[in-house]
TrEMBL record:
Taxonomic lineage from the root: Eukaryota, Fungi, Dikarya, Ascomycota, Pezizomycotina
Function of the protein: Catalyzes the hydrolysis of inorganic polyphosphate (polyP) chains of many hundreds of phosphate residues into shorter lengths.
Region feature Disordered, mapped onto this chain: 67-87, 369-396, 438-459, 474-523, 640-701
Name of protein: Endopolyphosphatase
Main location: membrane
Membrane topology label: Single-pass type II membrane protein
Biased composition (Basic residues): 484-497, 674-701
Biased composition (Acidic residues): 640-668
Catalytic reaction list: [phosphate](n+1) + n H2O = (n+1) phosphate + n H(+)
Protein location: Vacuole membrane
Family note: Belongs to the endopolyphosphatase PPN1 family.
Length: 724
């Protein structure tokens, strides 16, 4: 029953999104949406959509029907490795999955997107002792995929260059040995300059060879994507040391970022940041060196009028990060205080248990967030047209500018299921803007520089000249609240205390008169939502499995046992849900490969993300943070605003696994969030009595729904319930 319902739901969702993409469906809501979609052929303007693809991990040694055990790793033995990959395992991607993914993108997305964000790890892992990785293999798969993009997106009109830009970055597995990238220039950076010659603007190749960072004006003079080399921020990179010392490449990268963001501000442009390793950080764990995290978060706060979001990969888990700028400690950055709460390295390959532990820590943090006073309302521009800040705020920070957002997309490699993210953004008013491919060198004309920068002058400023440190007291301190002072025992330096590190230049904040940026209030170039596509390999591989040996019952290999046995953060090999089984039939008999919609923020009834602004995510995170058992800190504080949030998200625990359950009360409460959901069918009366139920038992629904997305739908209901 459940499965049938699920398939029906998926069918509906799938239809919805295909309709979105083809411009005719009920889910295409706003006027500009129709505008985008009506332009589909022949392609002229922007579509308001881009693809985020990450962690492809092609493995030339993958063998169909080989064993998923640790010693075999889908390279040998007999077992359940499917024709399109071994879902829920630590095996890498077969070429068939890579080819099928590109075929699907070409058939379904290519003509409907404006650019591609490709966040790295395009080589297999170094996990098979019998087949240690070679430089040729690592560069070979990277070259293959880079060329595949260039070929798929070639500009057919002109026969030169590409029709849309692709912005790549390194993963920690794209170098040898993995994780270790020494300061540039070095042979790796030099080699990638060549492999990515289609993608790196000519004018920036020199600086790329130096540090592995660059940016592309994906919409000339309007929107730039900044490719960050996160390996220089990554705690695991033993070849570098943080972002404090001017000789470190991490320091230099942040200086480059600061200066370039200042130029972008001057030009009135907006920026999407992307990288491989996300700035994940909880009370006990971190992925980035703390000095890098601190500066990055500070930079993003100061450039909150410019930066739209950060897009990352690496973790394979679908989630998001909310940086609290109250965690930025200027005294620490100035070497005046030690790091607050020392954090351990977060393992880069997390088991489901470790991943869940990590997510639980995030959840704890989220329970303490300050949600927008009126959920869904705060993203609108004030009626008096006075640019947001002037109206008396309902909360101290009506736009949520205290927070910074990073989005982490899950992977192609089937650690769970292979998945792709299509992000949509607001293009109102950009109907006639020149496109990337119209710029000289990008395909409009013959050029020896296929991807040269459209117009950006490469200015060079004295890095120190930008902001006197005193600006900090003005801008940064004014979002200070009592909470921080309480928590940190008043350790922060007083306004007049001069920092001691002469190398720390705090960027200037937005002008007092400038309205909230696209990350905070819906406007042109703001992100409006995304659709997560997945390939259900269990279905597609169509394996008829039997236990390999009867001594080992199937449950031993389920995620269940894995959850119970692995209590540590240590990496454990995942042999997957089918581990220890083998196919009955010698010949693979896969079904047709296709991605389908896993979920879409445009119609996810539980996420209810009206858009992807920071306030929307803070509100969602806060709801995820509310626990069924025990009271959260916020509840204990008896904040009356919290009551509103609870009331509105009254849910039934029993139906958490289905996206299609309508919740009329919720829908009505959310009607103000926009008319995107108006077309959805309603099931009247079904939940008439639900409100009387105790709310406490129901809050976990949102958390479990989040977990289900985090692991790309691979955990079934009973497995999920373990975490409630
Ligand atoms: C993948 O596609 C390439 C061409 O791009 C082809 O040479 C190769 O045989 C294909 N591999 C598989 C497994 O389909
Ligand atoms: C443009 O490219 C075509 C095909 O390579 C070539 O025949 C032509 O001479 C080129 N034109 C210019 C102006 O370079
Ligand atoms: C895009 O931004 C404009 C304001 O510039 C706003 O009126 C419109 O509703 C936004 N579109 C979406 C889909 O949010
Ligand atoms: C994937 O396919 C399997 C087999 O058809 C099915 O049991 C399972 O529910 C599907 N998973 C999702 C998330 O759709
Ligand atoms: C699986 O294999 C068994 C034994 O060959 C066969 O009886 C059964 O019909 C097969 N099931 C499917 C779904 O192919």
């Amino acid at each position: 029953m459940m499965a049938l319902q699920r398939i029906l739901c998926l069918g509906l969702l799938y239809h919805g999104v295909i309709a979105r993409l083809s411009g005719s469906g009920p889910t295409a809501p706003a006027a500009e949406q129709q505008h985008i979609l009506s332009n589909s052929a022949p392609r002229k303007g922007l579509h308001g959509r881009f693809l985020h693809i990450t962690d492809i991990h092609p493995d030339e040694f993958y063998k169909v029907h080989s064993s998923t055990d640790e010693d075999d790793g889908c390279h040998k033995g007999e077992g359940p490795a499917g024709p399109y990959g071994a879902e829920t395992t630590d095996c890498d991607s077969p070429y068939s999955l890579v080819n099928a993914t590109f075929d699907w993108i070409e058939a379904n997305l290519k003509d409907k997107i404006d650019f591609v964000v490709w966040t790295g790890d395009t080589a297999r892992h170094d996990r098979d002792d019998d087949l240690p990785r070679t430089q040729d293999q690592v560069l070979g798969t990277n070259t293959w995929i880079a060329d595949k993009f260039a070929e798929m997106l070639r500009n057919e009109e002109t026969g030169h260059g590409m029709s849309i830009p692709v912005v790549p970055t390194f993963g920690n597995n794209d170098i040898l040995p993995h994780n270790i990238l020494l300061p540039g220039p070095n042979k790796w950076l030099q080699t990638y300059t060549h492999i990515w010659r289609h993608f790196i603007p000519e004018a920036q190749r020199h600086s790329f060879e130096f540090g592995g960072w660059f940016h592309v004006e994906v919409i000339p003079n309007r929107l730039a994507v900044f490719s960050l080399n996160t390996l220089y921020f990554f705690d695991r990179n033993a070849g570098v040391d943080g972002c404090e010392n001017p000789s470190e490449p991490g320091f230099k990268q942040l200086e480059w970022l600061r200066v370039q963001l200042e130029f972008m501000r001057e030009r009135g442009m907006k920026v999407i940041l992307m990288g491989h390793v996300p700035p994940a950080r909880t009370d006990s764990k971190k992925l980035w060196d703390e000095t890098c995290w601190q500066k990055y978060t500070l930079w993003l706060h100061q450039y909150r009028d410019v930066v739209i979001s950060g897009m990352y990969g690496h973790m394979n888990i679908d989630h998001f990060l909310i940086h609290d700028t109250h965690d930025v400690d200027i005294a620490f950055l100035n070497g005046l205080s030690p790091e607050f709460g020392v954090r351990e390295y977060l393992d880069d390959e997390l088991t489901v248990q470790a991943g869940t532990d990590y997510l639980m820590e995030l959840r704890d943090d989220w329970s303490k967030l300050t949600p927008p006073t009126v959920p869904g309302k705060s993203n609108e521009v004030n009626q008096d047209g006075k640019k947001g800040r002037t109206r008396k705020p309902k909360r101290k920070d009506p736009w949520g500018e205290r927070y910074v957002l990073s989005l982490v997309s899950p992977s192609i490699v089937p650690t769970y299921f292979p998945t792709l993210r299509v992000v949509e953004y607001n293009i109102s008013g950009l109907e006639n803007t020149p496109l990337w491919r119209d710029m000289p060198g990008n395909g409009a004309k013959n050029s020896s520089h296929p991807a040269s920068a459209p117009s950006a002058p490469q200015k060079h400023l004295d890095l120190r000249s930008l902001a006197p440190i005193d600006d900090l007291s003005d801008s940064f301190e004014n979002v200070e609240t009592d909470k921080k002072k309480k928590k940190k025992g008043g350790k922060r330096p007083k306004k007049d205390k001069k920092p001691h590190d002469p190398n720390l230049v705090v960027p200037p904040p937005p002008a007092k008169t400038s309205p909230p940026g696209p990350a905070y209030s819906q406007q042109p170039l703001s992100l409006t939502g995304y659709t997560q596509y997945f390939a259900n390999l269990t279905h597609i591989n169509n394996l008829n499995l039997t236990d390999l040996n009867s001594v080992e019952p199937t449950t031993t290999n389920s995620l269940f046992s894995l959850l119970q046995s692995s209590k540590s953060w240590l990496m454990k090999w995942r042999k997957g849900k089918n581990g220890g089984k083998k196919p009955l039939t010698p010949k693979p008999d896969p079904r047709e490969f296709a991605f389908a919609v896993e979920y879409s923020t445009f119609n996810d009834k539980i996420y209810k993300l009206g858009d992807l602004t920071v306030n929307s995510f803070v509100e969602l995170a806060y709801r995820i943070g509310q626990k069924a058992k025990g009271k959260s800190l916020v509840e204990m504080a008896g904040d009356e605003e919290v009551g509103d949030v609870e009331e509105e998200h009254d849910c039934d625990e029993s139906d958490f696994e289905s996206d299609s359950d309508s919740d009329d009360e919720e829908m009505e409460a959310e009607a103000k969030k926009g008319d995107k959901k108006k077309g959805d069918k309603k099931k009247k009366g079904k939940k008439g009595d639900k409100k009387k139920k105790k709310k406490k038992g129901k809050k976990n629904k949102i958390w479990l729904h989040f977990l289900s997305h985090a692991f790309v739908g691979t955990l079934d209901k009973s497995e999920l319930k373990r975490y409630s």
